[in-house]
Every structure is written in structure tokens, then in C-alpha cells.
Amino acid sequence: MTTDLKSKFLQVYDTLKSELINDPAFEFDDDSRQWVEKMLDYNVPGGKLNRGLSVVDSYQLLKGGELTEEEIFLSSALGWCVEWLQAYFLVLDDIMDESHTRRGQPCWFRLPKVGMIAANDGIILRNHVPRILKKHFRGKPYYIDLVDLFNEVEFQTASGQMIDLITTLVGEKDLSKYSLSIHRRIVQYKTAYYSFYLPVACALLMFGEDLEKHVEVKDVLVEMGTYFQVQDDYLDCFGAPEVIGKIGTDIEDFKCSWLVVKALELANEEQKKVLHDNYGKKDSASVAKVKGLYHTLNLQGVFEEYESKSYEKLITSIEAHPSKAVQAVLKSFLGKIYKRQK
To answer: What's the pTM value of the predicted model, to 2 decimals?
Structure first.
């Protein structure tokens, strides 16, 4: 991804924002226009933009040549739709999780002037996606497929969030419900579909491909998304907060993290008791006991082994794909996340 494409990508954000705050379907006044603009600027462009930029990247790799201005604009607009969808999930997730920080700044709902208005802002973010699609893709042969894709991925993500919430929050905290298979299901639905499959699926549709014919691409991307989330779980505990932009709270929040699932698998009875007694407690002494156990069980080593095994498996799956262009897309994705620090 050249800096040129990234700056063009950011310019598209300004265009889309300006269209949305002047949407003829609603009569904005200055207050509402300013609110939406501030809300968008705070929540949409703040992250690494990996998901959005990868739509442009993937389209370029599929096409294999220079993109026209229109192709850059449209693939960027789809990339921003993915970022908008993500912003919607994150704004509402932070409320549900009672989080404090996101991307190195306070969560949107934590701002004194915002509070629970954030819930409605989430709904507005969600509704911006079909507005963008309608304005720029209405006449395209793949328009219905795009709308369908975003709807389906949103459903999968919300359902993944549901399994996460009911597993994490139902009644008394019961670690025995946590296993690799439940972790995998949560990750697959809550993260992998929208973060990995969605951007590539957008590029494939724009390139004129039929998604039905690319089930194996979906499978590889969902697998990659699983690997990405395991890294995320690992970094939550072992990453440096100043590097990852957030303070990890998975232990305090009783999250179904890969680390706790692995720890349960490797622990003896005495160690399991330490986990049961301390996992999900807010006080720093309990958190330190859990982290101490993670070190004792050498979860860093276990993770490194998982990382290299996953990488080999993914490369093998990718190289089995008949199309070199699709292989390039998948390898570019894998290259971005392998051994990442944040």
C-alpha cells in the first residue's frame, strides 16, 4: 500500500462524510450536522485502517495493474464501509463491556457530553453503510450482492458477540464453560468474518467475481481471522500498552481468551484452582496471580509454537488455490499479520 493510495483513501473519507452530513433524506441543522461530524471523526478514521485499506489492496492485487481514479474511489468507499461497520460494533461493544479506552483515547460513550447518546450513534453508524452503498453502487450489477454481504456479515458478527456475552456474563463466572471450541466459534463469528472475509469479499464482488465460487477463500480467511484473534488475546496480556494502544483487561473481564483456555488445558488441579479463584477479579493482586500462572505454564512458548504451526498451515492452504491473483491477496493479508506487535 503506497502512501499515495493511503492519502487518497483518507480523502475519500472526507467526501463520504460530507455526503452523509448533507444527506437529503434528513434535514440537518447546524447542531445535528456538527454532532454527526464530531462523532464520525472520533470513531471512524482513528484506527490502523487495515480492514478498509485491504479492500483497495485486494482489488489492486486481483486486477494486477494500475487502478483508474474511479476504481480507487469505489474500492476506497467499500473499504470505508467496512471501517464504518467496525466503528458501529466498537462504539456499542465498549458500552456493553464498560470499557474505558479504545485506540488510545477514552471510549466515545465515556465523554461527558455523549454518554448513552452513543447507543443511538451506533445505530446511525450502522445506517451510514447502506447510504454509502446506495449513493455509489446503486447502478452496479453487484449492488444487491454487496448489500447482502454487509447484512450477512453484520448478522454473523452480532451473533458472535452474543455467544461471547452469554458465555462471559451469564450468571456466576464458570470457567468450565471455556474450551478451545467455544473460543473458536466466538472468534470466527465475532471477528473473522468482518475483519478478514468481508474486505476480500468486497474486492471480489467489485472485480465481478461470484462469491459462491470462493468458499475456500472464505475458509482460509476465517482461519486467518482466528489466528489474528489468538494474537490479539496474547497481546492483551503480553503486549506493551503503549504499542497496542490499549490497556489489556481480558483477565479482569473474565474474557474467553485463548490464554485462559490454553491454561485450563495445561494446568494441574492446584493451578486450575488458582485460575478459578482469581480469573475475572478486578483487583491487581488477582490479575498478577493469573499472569504469574501464565508464565509458569510457559504460555509465551505455547503461543509461539501455535503461531508458526498456524502460519505453515495457512501457507499450505493458500498455495493450493488455483488462481495466482487470489493467492497474492491471501498472502498479502497473512504478511500483514504474521508476528505483528500491535
So the answer is: 0.92
